[in-house]
Inverse folding.
């Protein structure tokens, strides 16, 4: 295992892709997750002595669109991204299983999943590419995404049992929706294809004021709902020593990719850098 990172939006805008890659290499990060795979990006990483982490899918909710023509278009786009990732990327695609419409029920989305994803994953098998499901539940009030609960993960893997479909383990999302992240890692450990190093702080005063319904007006945190907020590892509820030990036992040997969504470090590029390096120091203190 090594410590890597996703690229915060502010860093991407102000430093540019090549600037971020060079900074990450200079600071001793092992990999960076990329928005897409290309020959140019591959060369930049090679020149910097850095690994590509995951490649973003970039398909959106097209694969779970109720319109059959939209699903076919998304399948074609998905296959292209798989080919590009096989040629230029790390062989792992990161994605959310999001619906075509945010008001779609998860039951409706599971029915549509069966129509489109088996073909996509079969194509990924042919190209030795793995897809890693991000457990982000989607925005409120519907929280429509699949793959953020044990229930929907079990159905997904029943529909597509292929080992080329796995998960991006991110305890922050499980903590905020009340799912036991430790039990989930033990159940789905053989499906871990990537790890996001992000945490969630639970706020007792916010829980008292807003309950789990969140704030009715205003916004306490840009990445939170008043009673919880995303934070860097070491500041939240996740036990990273336990997580790293279990990942070692499972045999995971990929990145712990720092995903910076901690409001304490979001306002400037310098704060972005500080947050990533603080998280890196914490995680490297745990890794063997």
């Amino acid at each position: 295992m090594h410590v890597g990172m996703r690229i915060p939006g502010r860093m991407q805008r102000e430093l540019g892709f090549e600037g971020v890659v060079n900074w990450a290499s200079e600071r001793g990060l092992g990999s960076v997750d990329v928005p897409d795979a290309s020959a140019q990006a591959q060369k930049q990483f090679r020149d910097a002595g850095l690994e590509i982490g995951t490649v973003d899918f970039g398909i959106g909710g097209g694969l779970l669109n109720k319109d059959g023509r939209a699903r076919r278009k998304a399948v074609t786009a998905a296959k292209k991204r798989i080919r590009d990732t096989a040629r230029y990327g790390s062989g792992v695609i990161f994605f959310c299983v999001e619906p075509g419409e945010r008001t779609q029920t998860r039951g409706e989305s599971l029915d549509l999943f069966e129509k489109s994803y088996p073909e996509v994953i079969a194509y990924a098998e042919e190209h030795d590419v793995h897809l890693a499901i991000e457990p982000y539940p989607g925005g409120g009030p519907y929280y429509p995404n699949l793959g953020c609960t044990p229930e929907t993960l079990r159905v997904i893997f029943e529909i597509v049992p292929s080992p080329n479909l796995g998960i991006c383990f991110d305890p922050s999302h499980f903590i905020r929706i009340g799912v036991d992240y430790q039990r989930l890692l033990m159940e789905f450990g053989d499906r871990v294809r990537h790890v996001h190093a992000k945490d969630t702080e639970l706020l007792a005063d916010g829980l008292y004021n807003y309950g789990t319904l969140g704030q009715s007006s205003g916004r306490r945190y840009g990445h939170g709902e008043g009673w919880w907020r995303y934070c860097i590892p070491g500041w939240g509820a996740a036990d990273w020593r336990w997580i790293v030990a279990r990942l070692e036992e499972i045999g995971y040997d990929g990145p712990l990719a720092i995903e910076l969504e901690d409001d304490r470090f979001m306002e400037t590029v310098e704060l972005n850098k500080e947050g990533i390096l603080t998280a890196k120091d914490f995680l490297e203190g745990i890794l063997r």
User: Anything to note?
Assistant: The mean pLDDT is 97.
